[in-house]
Design a protein that fits this description.
By secondary structure, the chain is mostly helical. The protein contains seven helices and two strands. Bound molecules: fe (ii) ion (2 copies).
Length: 199
């Protein structure tokens, strides 16, 4: 593989990150619109966004990184152990933050505007947390993997990702698969429609 060709696994990880950036940015815009009293989509859209993150990054993206990509890099070098340890802790922390956001949305649905700050603040913190997590992976981990993993490593990672795609149909939100859910979210929030739909 020459320098200009991207491994399939890296391409999928970057696309996952792009979509995560799109959805989390839209979630923040949604909550800010609620706080400012402007037009905002029905809260079911925010519920769908949270569900998408719960079912896709939490079920597929992070486990793939932990079990396969990070493990392969650890096998080749220990230079990145500290950063990989920190990223794996953040995968767990992100799950907790996401659960708190789901609870905050439920409180808003039950109690209304009075509890909106309790949704906005953790949402702002979550979006910044996710952005920094992706930045660290893209700045340090992905380039190191690209440099150090063997063709055999990449072949194994690509096989795992190919198997992963077979599972996408299992998770649904109100009858929608994750892929069609992403497209529904993109349709509901026009700003989403500009990115991440090239697959
Ligand atoms: Fe990650
Ligand atoms: Fe990631």
């Amino acid at each position: 593989m020459n320098d200009t060709t991207e491994h399939a696994s890296l391409r999928i990880i970057r696309l996952d990150h792009q979509r995560l950036a799109v959805v989390t940015t839209a979630m923040l815009g949604f909550v800010r619109a609620l706080c400012e009293g402007g037009p905002a989509p029905d809260p079911i859209v925010l519920r769908a966004m949270l569900y998408y993150i719960r079912e896709y990054p939490e079920q597929f993206h992070h486990p793939f990184e932990d079990r396969y990509l990070f493990a392969a890099l650890r096998h080749r070098t220990d230079d990145f152990d500290d950063v990989l340890d920190e990223l794996q802790c953040e995968h767990i922390e992100g799950d907790v933050r996401l659960r708190n956001l789901e609870h905050a949305l439920t409180r808003f649905e039950l109690k209304g505007e009075a509890v909106l700050p309790g949704l906005r603040t953790p949402m702002e913190q979550y979006v910044a947390f996710c952005a920094n997590h992706r930045r660290v992976e893209e700045t340090f981990v992905l380039p190191a993997a690209r440099r150090l993993l063997s063709e055999g490593d990449w072949a194994r990672l690509d096989t795992v990702l190919a198997d992963r795609s077979d599972s996408f149909g299992e998770a649904t939100f109100e009858g929608e698969s994750l892929e069609s859910l992403y497209r529904l979210i993109a349709h509901a929030v026009p700003a989403l429609g500009e990115m991440g739909q090239d697959t």
